[in-house]
Amino acid sequence: MITKKWILLNNEIMIKKDDEFSLDKDKDAVRSYFLDYINKNTVFFYTLKEKIDYLIENNYYINFYEQYTFEELERVYEFVYAKKFRFQSFMSAFKFFQSYALRDDSGEKFLERYEDRVVAVSLFLAQGKIDQALKYAEILIDQEYQPATPTFLNAGKKRSGELVSCFLDEIGDNINGIGYAIDSAMKLSSIGGGVSFNVSKIRGRGESIKGVDGRSSGILPVMKILEDTFSYANQLGQRPGAGAVYLNIFHIDIEEFLDCKKINIDEKVRIKSLSIGVVIPDKFMDLAAQDGICYLFYPHTVFQQYGIYLDEMDMDKMYDELISNPKVRKKKVNARHLMVKIAQTQKESGYPYLFFKGNANKEHALQDLGNVKFSNLCTEIMQISDVSDINIYGKEDQIRYGISCNLGSLNIATVMENKRIKETVETAMRSLTVVSDMTNIEMVPSVQKANKELHSVGLGAMNLHGYLAKNYIMYESKEALDFCNVFFMMVNFYSLKASMEIAREKGQSFEGFDKSDYANGRYFEKYTHSEFHPITEKIKLLFQGMTIPGKTEWEQLKTDVQQYGVYHAYRMAIAPNQSTSYIMNATASVMPVVDTIEVREYGDSTTYYPMPYLDNDNYFFYKSAYDMDQKNVLRLVSVIQRHVDQGISTILHTNTKDNTRDLAKYYIYAHKAGLKSLYYTRTRKASIDECISCSV
Description:
- By secondary structure, the chain is of the alpha/beta class.
- The chain has 28 helices and 18 strands.
């Protein structure tokens, strides 16, 4: 097999001259990729009119002529192409054309360039409003904002999937509830959705069914069925189904739940492709800190005694009551041993995710409407949910809240350099609102209900490490903490302001707004009592020329919110966004990078992806996450978390020398620092090879 020219050029990055990498070769690889492959395999049109007509008439695009004149379409295309966009790395171009660009029905020829995808998305989201289309086009082509994959991939296409692809729901403790969940999993997976379920309400192994003891098989068989369901319903074989299940740590099946991810466990027990997460109330963390006895409870006996599900109880208040009630079945374990078991499972498999329930609900603005009980596949979505009552056929169901995730991310570097936090956040919030308003997942009524009544969105961010390195700021420094404190406060302010303005325009707030901390003013207290301005000289310079909201502005926003309402029950969530960050030539999410030059394998080829803005001057500001003190990383995330109403996907990067006790210490530190969740734990294997950073 002959290696392609652009791959060879990309590989020349690693050839050193005067002890420095040949980073300029990546630009040569991009040029070759276009000249020798993309241009030769792109359908050519003589005029813009010919192109638009072809795409519409052949069912590639929706009929944009129903909403715009040709002159308006031309205006958006000309605006975008005048920007003369260029991909900044080979990986960015490669990722876009491999995963996002529209191809013809043969799959051989490209029908879109990056600019064309930007235009299609902008026109679609603007719904006939040309001025709004230009605003969307500006933040997209300038790479200030990036919609999540399902929106960016599908918007404007005639034969498209859904604009959102991440969902959550509760499972009830009966055959009908379990059947509803499996049916939902199959339907959502068939449209490319990833689905997370809370299985904490399902009775434990050995509990009674219809009054007969010992009949329940527990949660594991349900997990097996869900795993097979996701495997079967895989969007026409194009995208593997993805699912996660969360279990409360006080559930009697928790040890079996953790064991299912062990590599050497019996195949009857092992769960291979389903992700798992543990819901950890504050009470368990207290017990672990004391190295004390912890009781696991049989949830059905709890429900029989109190009429309340175990995972919906405040364990700080109910734990001792449950222990003292002889009719509640229970089992003794050592709390710290259970935490170490979690760490052992993580060392072996990367799982489980950890969801700190107390932290998630402490500053929850909708706490008077309900609790956040679990999270999603990437641990950043944290919204109220409530189990639906699914009855036998012929009886009416009581449908309650599921959750759908509607995401997009700011590019911190371009937003800061263009000094457009306010404008970009407002436009991004409006684009997310359009997606929320247009999404109608009728096939799963609980998800449909939540989206219709709560209008939740999740504005996130990417390129934190990239921006810091570009400005010669270490990720673990006090300047990084200072920057994050100011930047994410501003995103919070302007996203809330945009939500208020949308509520005022529509004359509508999310369902239950009157009972929220936005309405009673509690949400604003930390901002109206303290200033969040830069304190270090370097960060003051970075924010020069931008208006930073202070106590006065927050006080005014509080007044406006109480008068006009808020459209979105939830506004911010920081997702991993690995795929879209490649297109943006950005470091993923707010996490530190793993490699200064990332190595990727595609088929028979190896490609190299230098981190954004990398040169031989800022090289050592790209310190690997594996070489960082994880407590410093967690501290930085905790500063960001202060300003984010949902969660942040946070990955722990450990080394083989870190033992299970070290991991347990990170859990305790993360919990005390106010983090709401921990995503994967990644372990770097010991190697005699030097890392790239150390080989210069």
